[in-house]
Amino acid sequence: MNSKSNFWNVIPATTIGTLIQWYDFYIFGSLAVVLSTKFFPSDNPVTSFLSTLGTFAAGFVIRPLGALIFGELGDIVGRKIAFMATLFIMGVSTFLIGCVPTYETIGYTAPVLVVLLRLIQGLALGGEYGGGVIFVAEHAPKNKRGLWTSWIQTTASIGLLMSLLIIFATKTYLGNDTFLEWGWRVPFWASIIFLIIAFVARKRMGESPIFAKAKAENRVSHNPVKDTLVNKANRKLVFLALFGATMGQGVVWYTGQFYALNFMKTVMQIESNQVDTIVSIAIIMAIPLFFFFGWLSDKIGRKYIILAGLLLAVVSYRFIYEDMYQTANLENKKAVTVAHNSALKQPEVYPKTTQYTDGTVVKETLDKNSKTPKVTLTKTVSNEAQWHLIWMVFLQIVFVTMVYAPIASYLVELFAVSVRYTTLSFAYHTGNGIFGGLVPVVSTYLVTSAKDAANPAFYLEGLWYPIIVASICFIVGLIFLKNNIPNSIEN
Question: Residue ranges of the Major facilitator superfamily (MFS) profile domain (predicted)?
Fold first, then answer.
């Protein structure tokens, strides 16, 4: 089978399955603001939101365990059966999250069930990603591994984009009130449809030829988990991949997309639909760069592209987020009109709307559901400011594409075929899942603590976590990573 026909037999089915897995996993994070009011006590909105982010993070922390469980299956039985199983588990658990009754209905049983389902999702994703990139890389020509695996690398960002678009479409069709009442469940229920499509596409796939050959020659591991964690040579490579590449890649990915999303909604207080639009456009603009940096890594090697992305993120994050925050800072704007939803025309009457000279519109409403009624503020920024924010998020996603596009082929080339599924998945999901997955909750907590302490630059404090982790990864990678591209991954 030639390279072209091989491409069309492997890439579409693998990519669509991995895309659906990321969609299923990220729909929870995309709806974090809404879910915080559904599954947790609403007395303290900040605490509820942090609890939701903590539940979101729980799915990440469990991913290394899923990597070991399904990695062993993939290294002993086969690549295909492992990621077929993860696809089914992820789809069903996502659907069930959409069926869980709210906190008002069943009390603390609601968050317990949601946390349990998030853990199941995390286990499934821990086995999915490794299988996808390995399957593609083991089919790819040796001089196109970076380019071919970059298709898989796009699926995480496209999965996030897909979740935002489906949320937007559901909200538009049902209306905001209906969406907040029960319509938020629809994106979770849609997972079953996507599951069927991906399952049919993957069922027709054959086994990886490299794995099939290794198995026929009895060159596979009989205990991949032990060989990953106990074997000194394999363990050394896992730590190298973790501290020299994947943990930095993880924090850059989640800062540039998820933290940017939450930052604009909760810290900058921009209207939710407008934030989703900003992030969606930025992702669409940046997607071609995954293919570019994947292709470039085939030409010059993986190391320096990954390290350049890490360094650019470290030195620029505070400047980018300072710029983003000031774009919507009302202290920099001049109000021109105030409209009240009352004939009394009094400033203390809510809801009220304020128009600013630059086109920003601010709506203030009184939240009477909390113990202490408080005013909530939502901004809709001008078209010019919106495009400025799009470019700021786009810049962050450029860093994402630099660290993320080459890393799949780098990891495949690093590990031996006998334990590749287990070692690759464990290194990736420990770095991406734990270090990266903790970005939203840790960074939001740091911002909240700094704001409570009356720190005038509180909005920048959440960046210390990704900056420190990415800096450590850059130093380790610069010293210990190799830039050579192996001619064969069959051993």
Answer: 10-489
Q: Tokens for 37, please give them.
A: 């009011």
CA 91, chain centre distance (Å): 17
Measured CA angle at 226 (ends 225, 230), to 5 deg: 125
How many angstroms separate the CA atoms of 320 and 306, rounded?
20
Residue 241 near residue 411 (C-beta atoms within 8 A): yes
Reduced to 3 states (helix: H, G, I; strand: E, B; else coil), residue 189 is: helix
CA-based torsion, 363, 367, 368, 369: positive or negative: positive
Do 67 and 127 form a contact (C-beta atoms < 8 A)? yes
pLDDT digits (tens, 9 = 90+) for 36-54: 788 877 666 666 666 776 7
Q: For the sheet containing 361-367, what is the strand order?
A: 335-340, 352-356, 361-367, 374-380
pLDDT digits over 179-236, tens only?
989 999 999 999 899 888 888 887 777 777 888 888 888 888 889 999 888 999 999 9
Structural contact between residues 363 and 350, judged by C-beta atoms closer than 8 angstroms: no
Alpha carbon distances (Å) from 309 to 1, 204, 373, 425, 430? 36, 37, 45, 22, 20
DSSP, collapsed to helix, strand or coil, labels residue 297 as helix
What is the DSSP code (8-state) at residue 188? Answer: H
**Cα dist from 42 to 51, 112, 135, 369, 490, whole Å:** 11, 16, 45, 8, 55
Task: Give the other-Cβ count within 10 Å of 336's Cβ.
Answer: 10
- Quick one: which of 208, 246, 165 has its CA closest to 14? 208
- Domains of the chain are 3-328+381-480 (1.20.1250.20)
DSSP SS3 for 220: coil
Q: How far is CA 116 from the centre of its chain?
A: 19
The residue behind tokens 């601010």 is 362
Show Cβ contacts of residue 480 under 8 Å, excluding neighbours closer than 6 positions. Answer: 240, 244
Name the DSSP letter for residue 263.
I
Global pTM value: 0.86
